[in-house]
From TrEMBL:
Signal sequence region: 1-30
Species this protein is from: Rivibacter subsaxonicus
Alphabetized Pfam families for the sequence: HAD
Name listed for the protein in its UniProt record: Haloacid dehalogenase-like hydrolase
A GO molecular-function descriptor: hydrolase activity
């Protein structure tokens, strides 16, 4: 009898142990345990995702033939069209439109300026055709004499209230969810992530750390002239009406060298303006990766490439095909384009 009682106690104890162990396993799975969590959940399974995972594993796994020391793990990303949307017009141009219009009464000489006429007429096609420089030149004049702190606050205020003309969402919500995941994944693997954009550093630095996790010192972009001054007995940096540097096209490798000082091993762009950055990246020794976002999803975002005035993808696309670079299809490779709305 005592033997039967002991046997029953043991069976009940074993059953509780098994159930407890099962519960622990389920809890670990529910919390993302087990080490098998997908680092890129918004990416569809396919050649693009697998190429990224394979490359990152190869350059970060000790003992791998393509292993790269952490100090050399530099990844550069274009911003417009690569990390956030850029249609129907670069978002910084929309900001510039308001700034230039507000300053117009003090600048009657602008009435014959082609860039000013296009801005006032909301002629997006003409603005896109002109490119960054003539519009930046107007903005430089419009906000010269303003301190960097005042300009920083102007940008923050605009982003807090402005909405996309078609999508009706704040611009900082029109970032690409798959790219947010990729940035976080790369950093978890010892990469240092940089923005290298034709947009101005002054426009990007106030918000990119909160949105992308990229600190302001890791932003490479076009730059307005600035000088040190004293205002009311306080040292300030004042904006000047000139452009110091245009970080677009062939300017991107120059900006990378000047500010980063290391050649990237991974670069991600979306247009011909990124071609030289991609070429510069893959020209280095050892494992290298060049990626291009192809905007081919008119239903969820916009579809454009060779004929577009904004984010034209033509020569870079041809080179990607010829050189075997990874071309990411927004339509096929991304399960989700934008993060869920915050309200």
């Amino acid at each position: 009898m005592q033997g039967e009682q002991r046997l029953g106690i043991w069976q009940r104890t074993r059953r509780w142990l098994v159930l407890g162990a099962a519960a622990l396993v389920l809890a670990a799975c529910a919390s993302g345990g087990g080490g098998n969590t997908d680092p890129l959940p918004s990416w569809n399974e396919g050649t693009s995702k697998q190429a990224i995972l394979k490359f990152v594993d190869g350059v970060t796994r000790e003992g791998s033939p393509s292993y790269v020391a952490p100090a050399e793990r530099i990844a550069t990303f274009d911003n417009d069209g690569t990390l956030w949307a850029e249609q129907p017009l670069y978002f910084q141009f929309l900001f510039m439109l308001e700034q230039v219009k507000a300053a117009a009464p003090q600048h009657p000489e602008w009435k014959d300026n082609a860039a000013f006429k296009a801005l006032v007429a909301n002629d997006h096609a003409a603005l896109a055709e002109m490119g960054h420089k003539p519009i930046l030149e107007l903005l430089m004049v419009a906000n010269s004499g303003m301190s960097n702190e005042a300009y920083d606050q102007t940008i923050r205020d605009w982003l807090a209230s402005a909405r996309h003309p078609k999508l009706k969402r704040p611009f900082t919500e029109l970032v690409y969810q798959p790219q947010l995941e990729l940035l976080a994944y790369l950093r978890s693997k010892g990469f240092k992530t940089f923005i290298v954009s034709g947009g101005s550093v002054e426009f990007m630095r106030p918000w990119v750390e909160k949105v992308y996790g990229i600190p302001p010192e890791q932003v490479v972009g076009s730059q307005q002239g600035m000088k040190f001054d004293m205002a009311g007995g306080k040292p300030v940096l004042m904006r000047e009406p000139k452009i110091d540097f245009i970080d677009d096209g062939p300017g991107k490798p120059v900006g990378i060298y000047k500010q980063i000082g290391r050649r990237p091993i991974l670069a991600f762009g979306n247009s011909d303006g990124d071609l030289q950055m991609l070429q510069y990246t893959v020209a280095g020794s050892g494992a290298r990766m060049a990626l291009i976002v192809h905007h081919d999803d008119a239903a969820r975002e916009f579809a454009y490439d060779r004929q577009s005035k904004i984010g034209k993808l033509d020569k870079a696309w041809d080179e990607a095909k010829a050189k075997g670079w990874t071309v990411v299809s927004m339509q096929r490779d991304w399960k989700q384009v934008f993060p869920a709305p915050k309200n």
